[in-house]
Amino acid sequence: MIDSHCHLADEAFAADLDAVVARAKDAGLERALIVLEAGNAAEAAQAARVGELWPAVCVTIGVHPHQAHQFAADPERAATIVRDQIAATPSARAIGEIGLDYHYDYSPRDVQHAVFRAQVRLAGVLHCFTGGPSLADAGLALGLFISVAGIITFPRAEELRQTLRHVPMERLLTETDSPFLAPVPYRGKRNEPAYVARVVAALAQMHEMPTADLAARTAANFHTLFRP
What we know:
Elements: E1 2-6, H1 17-26, E2 31-37, H2 41-53, E3 58-62, H3 76-87, E4 92-95, H4 109-120, H5 133-141, E5 146-148, H6 158-164, E6 172-174, H7 196-206, H8 211-225
Parallel strand pairs: 1-2, 2-3, 3-4, 5-6
Helix pairs in contact: 3-4, 7-8
């Protein structure tokens, strides 16, 4: 199994990082992709610590829409910082987390648009997918992979589950987005990479296939998308 999107560099994991990594390994995770905020030295340092504990991990680097306001005067600088940090980080494999966030609106929407536009030229995975059939079809048509998080275990997520049933198996990824969005039965608690097993199990049940087969398929997809 692979957690294709988690925030192990977040301060939420600083106090017990060793134990969190140990539980991930005990749960059968092969590796994880850790999301870093571009230019954040504290996160980069904690990611390096994770790398010492778990050499198989790799990272993705980007400017989240919450921080887009920092680049209001020069959106292209966001892409430059991301590109430079990736070049200096051997474990970097992707651009992210990037996008638009209209729930909190920590950055003006026009600035979010500009910063996203500057970075998206370098990237492309639909992280923590919660959309409907039309968005799934649009992403697949662009050649994107669709990454599934613990939301598929929520009782009220039947519409999402129906959409995901029509996504080709070879285009699926699994993730936790930890420390956020803990799956059932951990809702309300801190999420962590070990819980990606719940996402894999839910997807396997949806597709009526052995959990081990679904884990192997999504792991292969990860390796197809991201270089070793």
